[in-house]
Amino acid sequence: MPTLTRWFLRLGLLYLLAGLTVGVGMAFRVEWMPLRPVYLHLLLVGWITQLIFGVAHWMFPRASREQPRGREARGWTILGLLNAGLLLRVLVEPFAPDAGGGWLLALSGALQLGAALLFAIHIWPRTAAR
After folding, report:
1. DSSP letters along 13-71, please?
2. Which long-range contacts (CB under 8 A, 24 or more apart) does 59-64 make?
3. Closest-CA residue to 51 (of 84, 9, 17)
4. Which 8-state DSSP code applies to residue 115?
5. What is the C-alpha to C-alpha distance for residues 1 and 33, in angstroms, rounded to an integer?
6. Residue 80 parent element (H or E)
7. What is the distance between the alpha carbons of residues 21 and 90, in angstroms, rounded to a whole number?
8. Which residue among 14, 52, 56, 130 is buried most deeply as judged by most CB within 10 Å?
9. Other CB atoms within 10 Å distance of the CB of residue 47
10. How large is the average pLDDT for residues 87-92?
11. CA 19 to CA 42: how far, in whole Å?
12. Which of the two residues, 120 and 70, has the higher pLDDT score?
């Protein structure tokens, strides 16, 4: 398994644990309910999306003999953008309405969107018919 895939999967598992922790907290403490968007992002972007990106990077057909998984630096950039956007969202979301942090939420979304677009560019050649 490639190192990049291992990082996607490990981080995804950490986000799963964090998301479930927030979910349990919401179940027992009504004060935690404003964290619902954080909970959803931890599970959907942090866990599921990273799991998909990591497994796709590993399992999709080879791009070429020289670079079987495409440009490795691009994959690390995707990992960095996705996690930077997610962590920014997790840190800002609970305080954004009160602190005027809407632009930080927009930045977090732009980072995550950038990661998704770059992933599509990265994986597209590996989906082409031979």
Report:
1. HHHHHHHHHHHHHHHH-GGGGGGHHHHHHIIIIIIIIHHHHHHHHHHSPPS-SSSTTS-
2. 60/123, 60/126, 60/127, 61/126, 61/127, 61/130, 62/126, 63/125, 63/126
3. 9
4. H
5. 38
6. helix 72-92
7. 13
8. 56
9. 21
10. 92
11. 5
12. 120
Sign of CA dihedral 90, 42, 7, 49: negative
Distances (CA, A) of 54 to 63, 90, 93, 118, 130: 16, 21, 26, 14, 23
Count CB atoms within 10 A of the CB of residue 40: 15
Q: Residue ranges of the domains in the chain?
A: 3-125
Give the closest residue to 90 by CA, choosing from 78, 101, 75.
101
| Amino acid at residue number 50 | Q
pLDDT in tens, 11-26: 999 999 999 999 999 9
> Could you tell me which residue, 82 or 67, shows the higher pLDDT?
82
* CA–CA dist 57, 25 (Å, integer): 33
Cβ of 37: how many Cβ atoms within 10 Å?
14
CA dihedral 37, 81, 1, 17 (to 10 degrees): -20
Please report where in the chains the tokens 């560019």 appear, as a residue. 121
